[in-house]
Every structure is written in C-alpha cells, then in structure tokens.
Amino acid sequence: MYEMLGGLKHMLTIAFLSSFAELLLNPVIIDVTVAAVCSDPNHSCSFAVYLTGVKQVTVGLGTMVMMPVIGNLADRYGIKTLLTLPMCLSILPPAILGYRRTTNFFYAFYIIKTLFDIICQGAVDCLSQAYVAKNAHTRKRISMFGVLAGVKSISGICATLAARVLPVASIFQVSAISSFVAVVHMLVFLKERLHDNDDSDSYDDDDRSDQEINDGNDLRMLEEPILRDAQIKTHIFTSVEDMVSLINNSTILVQALVVTFFATFSLRGMNSAFMYFLKARFGFNKNDFAELMLLSSIIGSISQLFIFPILVSAIGERRVLSTGLLMESFSAACLSLAWSPWVPYATTVLVPGVMFVMPSVCGITSRQVGSAEQGKVQGCISGVKSFAEVVAPLLYSPLTALFLSNDAPFYFPGFSLLCISLSWMIGFLQSILIKDVPTSTLNNEIRNNSNQGRASLSLD
C-alpha cells in the first residue's frame, strides 16, 4: 500500500490542491451571492436561489456531454493532456472576485465560472479516479479510491479552516493561487503511467502470465511500424455511444449507474437547498457555514482514510455502499425537521455515509472493464452525475425557494430536504440489488471482452 501510495503521490497532491481551491469558496459564496443580488444581505432571497439553480443546470447540461468525451479522450491521448485545459481555466473565476466583489464583478464571475465549469467541474475528479484505476492493482483499487476521497476531505478541512480565518478578498485570491500551483505541479511532476505495462497490473498475480501473452504482446504488436499503413478504423465515441456500449456489457454497471444518479441527484439537491435553508431558518453566515463544513470534513476524512478500508474488507464494497446510502437518507430526514441550530451539527455524525458512496461505486464499476477503458467508464459515471446535476436544481431550487417564502402552501421549511431523503432511499433500494461478483469471474469476462474486441478489430 505504501509503495502504491508513493507512486500516486503527485496525483493525490494535484487532487488536494484543486479540491482545496474549489472548497475554499463554499463557505463564502452564499454570502457573496446574497450581498450582490439581494436587497437584504442578512437573509436569503428567491433570486439568489434561482441564480444558483440556473448555474447548476447549465453546467450540468454541459458536463453531461463533456465528461464522457473527456474520459474517452483520456484513454486515447493521456490523462495528463486532458487535465491541462480544465485546470488552467479554473484559475480565472476566483481571481475576478479576488480583485473586486461589486455586483458587476459578481456577474462577470458568475458568467465566466458557469462557462468554464462546463469543462472544469468534475474533470479533475473524473480523471484522477481514472488515473488511480489505471495504476492501482485490482485488489488495492477500492482502498486507493478511499484514499483519494480521503485526501479531498482533508483538503476540505484545510479549506474550511482557511475560509474561517481569512478575509473574503483573500479567500478568492488564495483559491486562484492554489489552482495555479496545481497546474504547475501537474506539468512538472505528474507521469502519465507508473508502469510499463498497465494492463497486467489490473489482474490477479496468478493470471499475469496469460494476460501478458494475450494482451501485452498484442497491444505492443499493434504499435509496430509494419501496421502503420494498415487501415484501422478509429472513432471518438460520443457520450451516448459510450454509455450504450458499456451498459450493454454489464448489468452491474447499469445498477451502479442508477445508484450514481440517485446519489448525485440527492447530493446536488442538498447543495441547492441546505445552505439557503440554514441561512433563512437560523441566520447562518460565513463563519457558521465554515464551522459546519470543518466538522463534516474532519469526520469524513477520518472515515474515508481509516473506517472505509476496514469496512470494505469486512463486509464488501456493495454493503458499504448500501450502508452509506441508508445513513444519508436518515440524515436528510433529520435535517428536514431541524428545530434548532444545533441539529445540523449533530447530524454530522452521519457524514461518513455520503463519503462511502462514490468510492464504492468507483470500485464496483472499475472492475467491470479493463485498465485501457478506465477513463471511459469514469467518464460515463461523470456523465450520469452531470445529468443528475441538471435534474436536481430544476426540482429543488424552485421547491426550496417556495417553502422558504411566505407563499408556501403549508409551513414546512425543510420540505425539500424531506424529498431529498426519499431520493436517497431510492438509491439505497437499488444498491441492495447489486450482486457481488468474484474477482476471478470478472477477470475472465474482461479477458473475453478484450479478445472479442481484438478479433473485431482484425476483421475490420
């Protein structure tokens, strides 16, 4: 584990810096938005909620198309190459508000960040997960997904601490600097591959010799100059084609994508509703948000780095996934009934639930394909997540604004959170239908699919 962690240290550093830059803005962006567009800066307003929802829908529509394409291109041209553009674009938006935060500058930030997030949002997560899947052994891959998620949680702790003590202008400046340092570190230190033969490391040790014969040599033969003049069909799949191709080959992948949709739908709905609910209901401000996020990040990082690997070894990733979804459903239900400001703090004990979900999904789905298609499958997951991120604000932003206003059909400020709890429960019910497949069976299926693909290529 230590050797593999050392090999992935540069990607983990990039993930930390990028996540730190993004999460640093979360405690303050609500106050900045409300101050820029609302007449009463001490409370939320419907226009701020709708503005956030429009951004989420627009970005979701764009990333729904872009993420599968980026994942597929990463398999063809390299993860490092595909990381460069989104990481460079992420520098400019926080730099704008770091310079000035008047209404005009806020709208400039809003428009530019919306356009850039079509490419940037989720790209680092998608490609870092693909990088881990390509370079980690099958038996260590789920633990490494947990480590990657834990590093992001630690970045959340650091970002929240920084946001708690820094002035508003410095928060945006530090975010831009962190994004810049991440780009420089990637360009200087990140290696495209940690192994000469990444395919052989994706299978069990006793299957290595056969795999090297069947895959490694054949793949190298395809690169020989003797075939340069041969007519080989190449095609960059669109997002729809990639999803259909992968879904047709695996029932487990279909089930995992359904869980991904409802988990992301619920999580994005929580992002649309939760902070505005706390601000309108209890008058939370930047410091309150920072304290709540800090507590959540500490609990989440501990659970991902230490509890998650133990649970996966003890009960399996599928049961860990179901446990996490059930915990989140219960947490959202409790928050919807919050009657005092201490209730959101108390429910942070259930934060490990959401931290278990996506690492488990990534571990399950990564074993459904070979290492040469990890970018594609992670891009497929990101595409489904983006679709959920489109649908959630369309429902939850108007619902939240309605029940926080004086025109609500009945008094229930947390009604949207109750609906989120029900969508978490749907994801839980789907997760218990996923079957655990032995690793040896998966290896045979992957080799058969690879052989069929090479046979089809030679016939063409």
TrEMBL record:
Membrane topology type: Multi-pass membrane protein
Pfam families: MFS_1
InterPro entries associated with the record: MFS, MFS_trans_sf, Tet-R_TetA/multi-R_MdtG-like
Keywords in alphabetical order: Membrane, Transmembrane, Transmembrane helix, Transport
Highest taxon in the source lineage: Eukaryota
Sequence intervals crossing the membrane: 12-35, 47-70, 82-99, 145-165, 171-190, 252-277, 289-308, 345-365, 410-429
GO cellular component: membrane
Subcellular location: Membrane
Protein name: Major facilitator superfamily (MFS) profile domain-containing protein
